[in-house]
Amino acid sequence: MAQLLIVDDEAHVVERLAELVPWERIGIAAVYKAYSAFEALDLLNAHAIDIVISDIRMPGMSGLELSRQVRDKWPKTKCILLSGYAEFDYAKEAISNGTASYLLKPVTDEELLDTISDVLETVREEWNAVISQERIARTLRENLPQLRSTLLGELLLGKRYSEADLRDKMEMLGVPDLLGKPVSLLLVRLEKPFYGYDPRGLALVEYAVGNIAGELFAPGFQLWAGKDTYDYLVFAVSPEAGEGEEERQQALERAAEQLQEAIHAYLKGEATIVISREGTFPGDVAALYDGTLSALRRRVGNEQDLILTAADGLPARTELRSLASLYELPSLAQLLEAGQWDAAEQRIERIFGELQSRSGCIQELLLEAYFAIASAASSYAHKNGRPLSELIGPGYDQLLQGVPYRSIRHLQDWSVALMNSLRCETESETKRSRAKLIADVRQFVERRLAEDVSLTAIAEHVYMHPVYISKIYKRETGENVSDYVQRLRMEKAVHLLLYTPGKIYEIAADVGYQRAHSFINVFKKHTGLTPQEYRDKYASPQSDYEVKRYDTTT
């Protein structure tokens, strides 16, 4: 599904195109609105826009200049220019700027939809060339990508090299020179339907994702692709330009959003992406990686197809205590940290299956297993800033007794109960966090309905990625944020029409519309009546009349 941006200094034009054209018919999932080229650039920095529709003549910066900047900064984004002027020079300059199409006002909805459909087909063809099977298969035959991934994986797990050795390895493998430079990590968890693929098919998808990322992050970032022990894709990303950290982070988030959308559109699957904060390569890499895993577990869990920025910064490093005779990588502590509860339960089963098969020194083996499991649980709790006693409740008293179990069965029962307590408490915490997010969003919208209540404004208020907010809100409520805002606006408009003497343009402003014309069109689309017709039909001179509420669910 594609994302569209409409730019025009005439607000009623923007509102009409955004609200009344059936964009969903051609696969447009989100429509953003800008009333100047400068506002459009801000939105392009914040969102993965696929197509920009812009008026040519605008104060401050023209649509032609906007199209030039889009071409230079976002080469995968296509521009369509609208103008009421039929001079050939405009069309010629637009074409020279790489504009995808040029339309003359007034343009019909069908003409606009047909043009954008053609542009979307061009975009799909370009991406199909990027991820062609022949190109992917040729890359797979080379050993170099695997060697690069292995080296990055070692750094993620905290393996230390001298600066000279690391530089030699990086030069030999042809990876970007990141030493001493700012770096962020992107953790990509491929989800349905990819986890059902055979190894070769999955490898092709992973290389396709790497190719897409290489296209999207160039030329603003250097990219080093790898894979961790959980089979998540990991990208070490370093900015080429010397902008401020906040600007670099915004550019990184936008590129990550584009990567997720490309996986949807061109690989027909889903992926969750977690973006780390910025650190210095290589010293901060392992800590940044720990932070992304923690964010994946705490903020995402088993939910799929999300994107967020890890908000906790660089976590304090904590050495994981593990017993080599019982744990292969990833260790039990790492599985808990990543929120892989099913895998953790399977690991417990294997540990006790091994204990059942052993003979002699059973008490020594019970002691070793007990310390390993208790250590993993404690590490999990402390990395999340919580006391273990708070997470597992009554089981903590048994832990304090110090190996009170004299049989494999008793220790296994305690271990399973411990894992269940950790899992249930974590899932409850996630639900509480989601409920608070929904309440914060609604409170913000209700208080600022007459002002900017866009998804971008909401994201800035709650300090979360707009895509994460949008998807969590939809999953928790069954309603899009935009639908909620629209419903609230219509409900408030109905109330003001029936209970106050306010003029139509005043009510339009009260519910967040800059132009009364746009408000009238949207109100009629939702109710079948203009605001004045609705007031004339349902308002009553009696003080105790019953108001007919418009049901926005129909």
Automatic annotation (TrEMBL):
Residues 3-120 form the Response regulatory domain. The keyword DNA damage does not apply. Gene3D superfamilies: 3.40.50.2300, Homeodomain-like. InterPro entries: CheY-like_superfamily (IPR011006), Homeodomain-like_sf (IPR009057), HptR (IPR051552), HTH_AraC (IPR018060), HTH_AraC-typ_CS (IPR018062), Sig_transdc_resp-reg_receiver (IPR001789), Tscrpt_reg_AraC-type_HTH (IPR020449). It is found in: Cytoplasm. Pfam families: HTH_18, Response_reg. Residues 439-537 form the HTH araC/xylS-type domain. Signal peptide: none annotated. The keyword Hydrolase does not apply. The modification 4-aspartylphosphate is found at residue 55. Keywords: Cytoplasm, DNA-binding, Phosphoprotein, Transcription, Transcription regulation, Two-component regulatory system. It comes from the Bacteria. This is Response regulator.
